[in-house]
Structures are given as C-alpha cells and as structure tokens.
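Lecture 7, part 2: worked example. A protein chain together with F0G.
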Amino acid sequence: MLEDKFPSYRGDLRYHCLGCQKKYPGLELHYTCPDCGGVFLLRDHNFSELKKIPGEKWRFIFDARAGSRINALRGIFRFYEFIAPVVEEKDIVYAGEGNTPLILASSRLQRFVGQKLAFKNEGQNPSASFKDRGMACAFSYLQRLIRQKGWDQVITICASTGDTSASAALYAAYVNGPVKSVVLLPQGKVTSQQLSQPLGSGAAVVELPGVFDDCMRVVEYLADNFRVALLNSKNAWRILGQESYAFEVAQWCDWDMSGRVLFIPVGNAGNITAVMSGFLKLKELGVISSLPRIFGVQSRNADPVYRYYSQDPEQRSFVPVQVRPSVAQAAMIGNPVSFPRVRDLARRFEQEQGRGFFNVVLVEEQEIIESMLLANRNGHISCTQGGECLAGLLRARESGLVEKSEQAILNATAHALKFSGFQDMYFNNSFPQGYDITPREEFMNQPRQVLSPEQKKSMDAQEFTRTASQELVRLLGLKGN
Ligand code: F0G
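Predicted complex, written out as structure tokens:
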C-alpha cells in the first residue's frame, strides 16, 4: 500500500534563457531575460535526484495517486515532482483542472479516417479549455509568492484570444484575497461565450482595437514597466502546468507512446512547447521508452510556424505574419511568443528520437470548420481548434506523413460551445469576407419551425398537441406501431 501523503521532494527550479543561456533562480517572477529579452523555460537543478527513482516506480506512484484523497493532488499536481516541486501543499490551487478524458473516436469516424484516433477533451476543464492546467500552476506559484512576500495587492494581467482570459479570471476569482484580474481582449475577436467568462468572474475586462498580437505588446509593455503579474504563457510557470497534458496522455496510454501521433493546434505556441517538454521529461526519467510523434497544425490564415518549418533547414528564418480571419480564432496569432521554445524543443525531440518526430502541417479554413462539424456529428465536443487537429491528421495522411497503423491523439483544446458562433455562420451561410468558407449542404443543419405563434394562439391545448404531433408525423414520416 502506498501512503497517501503529500510528496516530500523539493526541486531547485531556475529560469533558463533560450536566448543567451543565462540562468536565474526561480524565487522571483520573471517573464523574459533581463539581459537579452529572451524567453525562459524552467528547469529543475535537482533533476538528477528524480533520476534515482526508476521509471517503473514513477509509473506506480502516479497510478496510485490517481486515486489520491489529498485535494492538492487531485488535479495536475498528481505529477507534482515533474511540474513545480517548489510550491507547498497549502499554496496549491485546485479548481477541477486536469484528468480530462481521452475519448476514442466513434467507430464511424475511425472508419472514415481509416485509423485509430481519439480526442482528448480539454473542454472538460473548469473554464472549458486546456488553459486551466497552466493557470493552476501559475496561480499556485503566485500563492507561494504572496505568502512569502506578504503582498497585499497583486494585479494579474494577460492578453488573450479568449481562453487564457477566461481561465485567468476564473482562478483569480477563486484565489481572491489580494489578487485582482485584468484581461485585455482584441475587440470583436473573441466569441461572446469567451467574453462572458471573465465578465462573469468579476475581472476587469479591457477591449482594444486590433488582434491578439496588438494586445500582447501592450501587456508586455505593462509587465516590463509596472508591478503586474503576467499570466500569458510567456510566464514559464504556465508551461510547467500544461506539461500535465503529456503526462496524462502517457498515463492513459499505459505509458507506451510508441506508434502514437499527437496533433496540436498552434497559436502562441505555449501548448506545443509544454507537450514536447513534458514528453522529453518522461523519456529522460525512463517513465516512457519512446516519444510520440508530434504534429503542430496551423491555418493558412495564421501560419508563421508552418512557414518557418517549410523552409530549407539550413536557411530558416522566422518572420511574423499578419493574421487574417480564422475560425480557429483562438490560435489566430501572427507572432507567437513561444516560438523560440518550439525551435529549441523540436530540435531536442528529433535529436532524441529521430527525424519525423516533429512536424507542422497547414490546413485551410474550410477544412477546419468541416472537420469540427464532422467530429461533432460523430458524438464529440470539439472546438474549431480541435477541428483543426482533425483536418491536420487528414492532411498528414493524404501526404503520406502519417501511417494508417499509427494511433492519432487529437487535442480538442476547448469546448465546442465556446465556438458555436462559427457553427452558426456555417449553418446560416453568413461568414463575413476573409474566411474563404463556402458551406456545403451535407454539413448544414437548421431548426425547423412547426406551427407559428399565431397558429398556436388560435388553438386550445388539446388541438395544439394534436396538430403539432401531426405535423411531426408528416415531417419525420413516422409509422404507427
Ligand atoms: N486552442 C485554444 C482553444 C486556444 O485558446 C489556444 C490559445 C490555442 C488552441 C493555441 O494554443 O497559444 O498555446 O499555441 N489561446 C490563447 C488565449 C492564445 O489567449 O486564449 P497556444
């Protein structure tokens, strides 16, 4: 019997700058390197201690903790030692994040695609997207700072395409006390559901004209010059929390990642960074023996990472792009903050496992929305970004980059309901210019009105029931029993 207690291991986390390679202690909140402005990844300098425990023992520990009764270990901190082993039990914020299900695609969808595939339903997190994983970690670290430094006021701030803000506002509202949440949104470029989330959580919501990249520059300016806590994935504590996605996928696959291929939509590139970093950790510690293959997916209307990787490897240069309207609006980002992290980790991924273990594919807007509709017509709850993953898989199959024998795991990063406005535009054929989407009859669906309000007014209840039923019998071609 494994004792159900909070882990005793403590790490020595330090910021590593990916620009100039300088290191800084993890005791303060840094976003970018004070010396060169580069982005950070956090590394545990006690990592060799973790290596003394065999992979098999780690697997046993994590499997046992899946049934833990300790509140702090019920979410992403089930993998405490691999995430942020500097926070204490009392610092940990658990709002129900993590443990999202990996749902096998319906047999009809698997037949259609011609291979085994599953969706990881990140929309089943508390704010209905994967962002809660990173936010739980960032807020736990923040709680530690508040406790140690005795801060009586902390303003958290983020730019967002809608989901980071929903998550940040939710966790800030939960932690409360000295924490006040401010979110910056590109006006008219988050869905109404996403907008309602931080408003409902009581955050200060600020709208700016422009796109996400414009908002990001403003929060970067504020974070560089004023006392605010930045909650975008530039904050490396967010990345640590999002690594739990990789740990959960591995655990669900019984710690065997050979022959698995993961699809991840790429926007600000924090998520794909975290997933690669997480799997590399598992491999280094012998928890898994093979890495999965990773496919980033981008829309043609926001494709800077795809463009970079489609260049000759010897002469690649990164150039931000001006984004155009995309149904994968949450990933509509032209200058991803985490790009240097992706470059670093993709190189390590291929060094570790070989060529073809990191790829980026490009998909069209039409493919994204129709793949989402296809998934959801098969009993899934995918958002447009999850649709982007399915479109990416279909593309990769078509171009011979993925074998029929591989098992695909698609990241449905948010709940379908957050993006129902794009579904409405498809069903009503009302896309504004710039989307390049032509709805097709086979995917359309509309409510059918039976009886008008005037007709109902002229009937008593009995007559209404009989007439409406008869209309339905006619409409559906029902036969008597
Ligand atoms: N899917 C969803 C639902 C998202 O909200 C995001 C990013 C992505 C995919 C792309 O992930 O940025 O880590 O590469 N949303 C951020 C936000 C940018 O502000 O909510 P990424």
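The two ends are 58 Å apart (CA to CA). The longest strand covers residues 179-186. Keep this in mind for problem set question 3.
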